[in-house]
Amino acid sequence: MHEMRKKYLSGVRSLVVKLGTQLLSDSQKRLDSAFLTQMAGQVMVLRRRGIRVTVVSSGAVGSGLRVLNLSSRPTDLATLQAVAAVGQPQLMHAWAHAFESHGASVAQLLLTREDIDDRRRFLNIRNTINAVHELGAVPIINENDTISTDEMTRITFGDNDILAGMVAHATQADLLVLLTVVDGLLDESSQSVRVVPSIEEARKLVRKEKSTLGKGGMDSKLMAAHMVTCGGDAMVVANGRDRDVLPRLLEGEVLGTLFLPAENRLSSRTRWISSVRPKGTIHVDAGAVTALVEKGKSLLPAGVTKVEGEFEHGDCVAVCSPTGDIIARGLSNYDADQVRQIEGRKSAEVRQLLGEAAYAELVHRDNMVIEGK
What we know:
Helix 3 (60-67) packs across helix 4 (77-100). This protein has 14 helices and 13 strands. It has 2 domains: 2-270, 3-Layer(aba) Sandwich (Carbamate kinase), CATH 3.40.1160; 278-370, PUA domain (Archaeosine Trna-guanine Transglycosylase, Chain: A, domain 4, Roll). Strand 1, helix 2 and strand 2 form a beta-alpha-beta unit. The chain has helices spanning 2-9, 33-48, 60-67, 77-100, 113-117, 119-134, 161-171, 199-203, 218-230, 245-250, 268-275, 286-293, 336-342, 347-354, and strands at 14-19, 52-57, 106-111, 138-143, 175-180, 195-196, 234-239, 257-259, 280-284, 304-309, 316-320, 326-331, 368-370. The chain has an 8-stranded mixed β-sheet, with helices on both faces. A 5-stranded mixed β-sheet has the order 10-9-11-12-13, with helices on both faces. The longest helix has 24 residues, at 77-100.
């Protein structure tokens, strides 16, 4: 087990570490400044070893609740966003103080789901984070709760688990570490599962409980694991309160649950396609399913049976089988109205209808990800 850990973790040069709300809180449910200082020390140990560490930190709403003396999380979006607006400066002040004691500065990046879904903004996130590292500061990333248009009382980034996975994609990190208050994924006997070779096997063990402070649960962690491991990188879920957990993990010590990476590493572009939210859905016939899944072909208009949603040229769309299952995601060469115009038609008919605007493929194979592969 130790040798396996060393195989996947000893060569890590860049990692993303995510800390949840409950982990960052003390016994009185206040922001635990002493713990932040201790965690900052661990990050600095890794930086001295030449490892880039990007921090994804929850806690804005929790910090706001403490400052405003509120006993429970608000249920309406406007109040929840206001609480986050109050709490985010407190959270960043605590992180800045924690790293200042170790001689380092921090940079704040607040992201929404829309930032991830837009390819240009996604790439700009990468450039900004890289520039922060080059300047010697530590990036501290959180969801921009104050302007997010998704309902914050439901899972959007899953208490930042999914956001952390996307940041790992953006930074091309070798490892994602999700730190929580439990010892990783637990089996039916509440024993830690040390290695997960298959996400599908792990899903059977997921428990539905969530903390009173956080939005996520182990289910959102498995979504992040699927995203990261399918891309060819490893992920660890571990107890953030374990002493020196980050340095010990990278030394190969058996802590938490290690999710093994897939053998084939996906390109950055392909990873992004697999993780963004589709703008629409294209339903195809059985012949198209065979062509896409088994033969590795592009999607042609002839195989389309129905179009749902509104999307533009270049937007990500989901491709569904006749049974309604998503079999692929890809970037459409046409907008939704054009697809409705050419659905089910042969290439010659498409060229006749659209002239110079016609593409041979609706979704090219190079811009497509097959689900489960």
